[in-house]
Every structure is written in C-alpha cells, then in structure tokens.
Design brief:
- By secondary structure, the chain is α/β, with parallel strands linked by helices.
- About 30% of the residues lie in helices and about 20% in strands.
- The protein contains 20 helices and 29 strands.
- Strand 17 and strand 18 form a beta hairpin.
- The N and C termini lie far apart (about 60 Å).
C-alpha cells in the first residue's frame, strides 16, 4: 500500500479486521512514518488535518506494530517484475499493489524547486534549505523547536523573516504553529494568491475553476465574514498580509541560500501604488505585469514595475494548489497506467493493470460511468478517504479472493460508480488559538437556494464561537462550519450533515426570530443528545426503509420520480406539500418507532421521557453503607 492517506490507512485497517483471513505480509509505504505526523498539542500543529481519522485514533490502531511500515518514497513502478522502486534505489516486490497517494502542493515545483525533505531531487529541479512545502513528509522535523530553521526564525536578537504562501486553511494553521514555536508575528508574512492565478492553467472555463477549487483547496476564507475575522486578527497581531499576489521568482543570495521573493500584485492597485503615465493619465492598475503605464523610474533612473513586490526572507513555506507529485506522475506515465488529469480506475478501483488498485484524491473513476453517475462527481477528492478505503478493500477481496468473498456474502463487483455517503471534513487550529472545523456533504456545491444559518457569538477578543449551517434546495444540511475557543467532538458535527433541518427542532426559524441567540449552546442541550448517538443514523435509515415500503409512500415516490425525470426541480416547498399527504397511521408509526428507539437506549439516553417508564420500579443496588 503506497501512501498513508485516509484511503491507505482505511484500506489497511479493513484488511486487518477481516475475520476469515489473516494477511501476514502487508507493507505500508508512509513517507515520514506515523511517529512524526503531528505533535501531541493541537495548538502546535502546522497544518490542518482530515476529520476522517483523529490523531488518537491513528495511534490506537498501532499500525507500526501490526504491519510493515516503511519510511520511504516510491519513485518508480516495474509492472513486469511486479515491484516498486524506492528513493534509495531499493526494490520492494508486490503481489497486489494499492496506490493511495494523495495530491501534493505544486507551488515549488511550478517554479523549478522541490521541498527540503524531498530526495532524490528530480531531474531539472533545484533544492534550497529554506524552501518548505506544507505537504513535505518531514514538515514537523524541519520546523521542530530547537532545529536549525526554528532557531533562525525565533532568534531573540536577529530573527529572520518567514513568508507563508497560499490561500487555504493550512497556511493559517501554519502561522498558528510558528507563533506557538516562538516566532514573532511581526516576522511573518502571509501572501495570498489570486484564485485564478493559482489553478487556472488546468481548466478551460472560470466555472470549472470554481467548481474544482471548492473541493481541492480547503480554504478557511470561503466567505467574507470569516475572511475579515481571521485576516483582520492576523494584521492586528502584527502579521503582514499581502492579498491577491502571485509568486513569480525565487532569488538566491551570495551564499546560494534563499534571499528574495518576487511577487506580482494582481487586481486593482492601492492608491499609493498608482503612477502617472507619460500622457498624464492615471494607470488603471488592472492589467498584468509589463502593461503600459505600470513602469516608473526610481531615484537612480532605473525602470521598475510598480506591480512587483520584493520581500527579503530566509524561509518560504508554501501551501498552494494541490496536484499530482512529479515522481508519482512519471512512474504512472512510464508504466502506461491510464492517466487523464487523475489516475483512472474502474468501478472496482482497478487500474488497467489487474494487479494494481488505486483510490483516494489522486484517482478518478473512468469517464464511461459519466452517463450513469447521476450527478455524482467522478474525481475521488470529493469523497471521504476512509469510506473509499473501505470500499476498495471489498472490491479487492471480491476480485482476488472470490472464495473469501462468498464467506463474507459480499457482492462488491460494481457496474457503476460506487455511492459514497460519509461527509468530508478537515480541521485545525488557527490564530489566535481558535479551533476550526468544516464538514460538508460529499455532493456539496456552493448554492444560494436556501439562506444559511449563521450564529456569530465571537467577542472582540475572539472568545466564544462562530457556527454556520448551509442547506440545499430541500432543506437538508449541506455543510457545518465551527470556529471557537472550545474544542468540539468531530462526530457531533459529522452527525448533522445530511439531516433535514426539521431534525434540529425548527432551529433556523427560531434563530431568525431571536428566540435562540446561541446555536452552539442550544445544540449542546439534552434534547439534542440523540442526534449524536452512535445508533441514531442506523435508526433513521431503518425507519426510512420501513415507511418507503408502504403503498401510500410508493405512490408519492412515483410522483416525485416523474417530476425529476421530466427535468423539474424539487424544492423545500414541495417537501412540505408532500408531508401533508402522509397518512396519520404512518405518522403514528414514526412516533412509536422513535419511542421504541429511546426505550431501547435508555442507558445512554436517560434524559428523554419515555411514556410508561414512570411506573417501573427502580433497581437499587445494595452497598456496604446502605445494605
């Protein structure tokens, strides 16, 4: 298994949990290993993490004790010999190869450089000690307290400047980690690139850029309110924030170390940067570098570009657009594995080589499924890596061990794209010590069909919480964003995504009427505990199946199907109209089923009143003090 991504870890975990077979020779290729993935203190983390696996959960799996974990990188594949080549030119044979690598930050590679921890250096690329990518497998080692780089950045008398370049939540988490390691905010520069400059080279239309960027780049500032809060606080702390800039060039100093970064200022220029043209007209300030009217002479008569920004620094940390790693791409291309922007697999996660399976953000299902995917994206970066790994294991077992599949009563072979249901999320700590979590539906897309529910209880010193729910056209919760000083249980946010807003006790309506001023506190009250219960999702799923089998519901579902097939949209108002047609017997069945669920789980949900339990005699356990 190549790659310790969510999909890779989930694949290995599922193999180890199989009851009918024991795999004795599993090798997991994990650059950086597991011991250095993240520090114990979340406030010291240098990047955001997926919510599919928590740090403690990965530790509890003890994979390093159960499988062979190799701290190494794959640089080539030999399909004929069924082996992979590692960075030290050693060879690792395989019977089944699973490619679960994720996407990597491409900023440095686009400028001809590689991050500090990449070895060997690919051909036609350079290496500088001060250049670090947030996707470097040895990030926490490079920026460890007491290390060479941190001693340089946190020097008491002569600290060096550090530039963080990117427009996603990882860059904000990085600044948080640097400050906690002793770097002064005044010595940090946050350079935020323009969206289209960042990734437009891989797409044909602006709409494609926006659609893919929503899933590819986990950005914290995806709305103006969050952006103003976080970036405003950074500037108040002393961090220099440069908006809408593009990194153009890296300049070395006399000692062949990082010396200067050259940025291009995009968009409208500030008033103080605008210059007069020879005709006396003011430059518009909206064109690219080299445009007429954007050059001026300095005191020595040298011509300079007013859009050019030069920053002297010794460390550059990048977290820009993510794409396939150059070594991974070469190994796939040289071995004739089908690659079309992503590694292409069929509905069983199998490449064009029967012995090679693949899953995760690097992969995409074949275009032949487009007509049958019913609006579901083919690129896997839209989906939860943990669920991908689970599905990939089932398909691999079905394909390679058919007898075992019969014992498991599995029928994993797919003629279509698998359906994924688990939410996708990430979280981290952003300045100043704010926990940030964003959980969304796997089919989530930006929409204004339903107004969002925003509850901002952050005080001037950013104590408190910020909570935002977005809804799709039917009133189903599409995403949840939480930011606050208190750490929350991730599973609580997960359990809300995909629920209809009616589950939240008319929350949006009551919040708009100022009846509920603090949504976070309201959702922490006893009435909502059942929403977070482990078996609540199973209960709702079973209840849906039960009522859908009723004749009246079959007729209603048939009417809905006719509308959808005719191309008509189905909105929240249509749902409310249908609710009035449901028979009272079905409503009573739902109520009775809910009471039965609460009665069966009274040991975990004692805060709910269950009719009839008031007549039951309590069980008294005798003690030494009260026999």
């Amino acid at each position: 298994v190549v790659g310790a991504s969510d999909a890779g870890i989930s694949f290995v975990e599922t193999l180890l949990s199989l009851k009918y077979i024991h795999f004795t020779n599993i090798a997991l290729l994990a650059p950086g290993g597991f011991s250095q993935t993240s520090p114990d203190d979340p406030l010291m983390n240098l990047k955001a993490s997926s919510t599919a696996y928590g740090t403690e959960e990965i530790k509890n799996l003890m994979l390093e004790s159960r499988v062979r974990v190799l701290n190494s990188r794959m640089i080539d594949i030999d399909r004929q010999q069924k082996s992979i080549v590692l960075y030290d030119e050693s060879v690792l044979p395989y019977d089944i190869l699973v490619l679960a690598m994720g996407l990597q930050d491409k900023t440095l590679q686009s400028l001809g450089y590689v991050s500090r921890g990449i070895a060997p250096i690919p051909q036609n690329f350079q290496h500088l000690d001060g250049l670090i990518s947030l996707d470097d497998p040895y990030l926490n080692i490079h920026l460890r307290p007491g290390g060479t780089i941190m001693n340089m950045l946190a020097h008491k008398k002569r600290p060096e400047r550090c530039v963080v370049y990117g427009r996603n939540i990882n860059t904000l988490c990085c600044i948080q980690g640097l400050i906690k390691r002793g770097v002064k905010p005044q010595m940090i520069t946050l350079a935020i690139p323009d969206l289209f400059t960042l990734i437009q080279s891989g797409f044909d239309t602006p709409e494609e850029v926006i659609a893919e960027e929503f899933s590819l780049n986990q950005k914290a500032c995806y709305d103006k309110e969050i952006e103003n809060i976080l970036l405003g606080k950074l500037e108040a702390m002393g961090v220099q924030v440069l908006r809408d800039v593009a990194l153009q060039k890296i300049v070395e100093d006399e000692s062949n170390q990082l010396g200067t970064l050259i940025f291009e200022k995009l968009g409208e220029l500030p008033e103080e940067m605008k210059v007069e043209t020879e005709e006396g007209d003011q430059a518009s300030g909206t064109s690219r570098s080299g445009a007429e009217g954007e050059e001026k002479k300095d005191a020595e008569g040298e011509v300079s570009n007013v859009r050019e920004l030069k920053i002297n620094c010794k460390v550059l940390i990048t977290g820009g657009h993510r794409d396939v790693d150059i070594d991974v791409f070469n190994s796939l291309h040289n071995n004739s594995l089908v690659y079309n922007g992503r590694l292409i697999v069929d509905g069983n996660f199998q490449t064009n080589d029967p012995a090679i399976f693949a899953g995760g953000s690097l992969c995409s299902f074949s275009g032949k499924y487009q007509a049958f995917s019913a609006g579901r994206p083919l690129n896997m970066h839209h989906y939860n890596g943990r669920e991908i790994g689970l599905r990939m294991t089932s398909h691999m077992i079905e394909n390679q061990y058919p007898l075992l599949a019969l014992m498991e009563q599995s029928s994993a072979i797919e003629e279509n794209v698998p359906t994924f249901n688990l939410p996708v999320g990430y979280g981290g700590v952003v300045p100043p010590n704010l926990y940030y979590y964003y959980i969304r539906s796997p089919l989530s897309t930006p929409t204004e069909a339903q107004p969002s529910l925003v509850c901002n209880n952050l005080e001037a010193d950013l104590k408190g919480s910020y909570l935002k729910f977005t809804f799709n056209e039917l009133g189903i919760i599409d995403s949840v964003l939480y930011m606050g000083t208190e750490k929350v249980v991730i599973q609580s946010l997960w359990s809300m995504v995909g629920l209809h807003e009616n589950y939240l006790n008319k929350l949006r309506e009551r919040h708009d009427k100022k009846i509920i001023p603090n949504v976070a506190e309201f959702l922490s009250e006893n009435w909502a505990i059942a929403l977070y219960h482990d078996w609540f999702a199973d209960f709702t799923l079973k209840l849906k199946k039960d009522i859908q089998s009723k004749e009246e519901l079959q007729a209603i579902l048939g009417q809905i199907s006719e509308k959808v097939m005719a191309g008509k949209k189905f909105a929240k108002a249509d749902v409310e109209a249908i609710a009035t047609k449901i028979d009272t017997k079905t409503v009573k069945y739902i109520e009775d089923s809910t009471v039965d669920y609460l009665r069966a789980n009274q040991n975990h949900l004692p805060m709910y009143y269950v009719p009839g339990t008031e007549f039951e005699q309590p069980i008294i356990i005798p003690t030494a003090k009260h026999p």
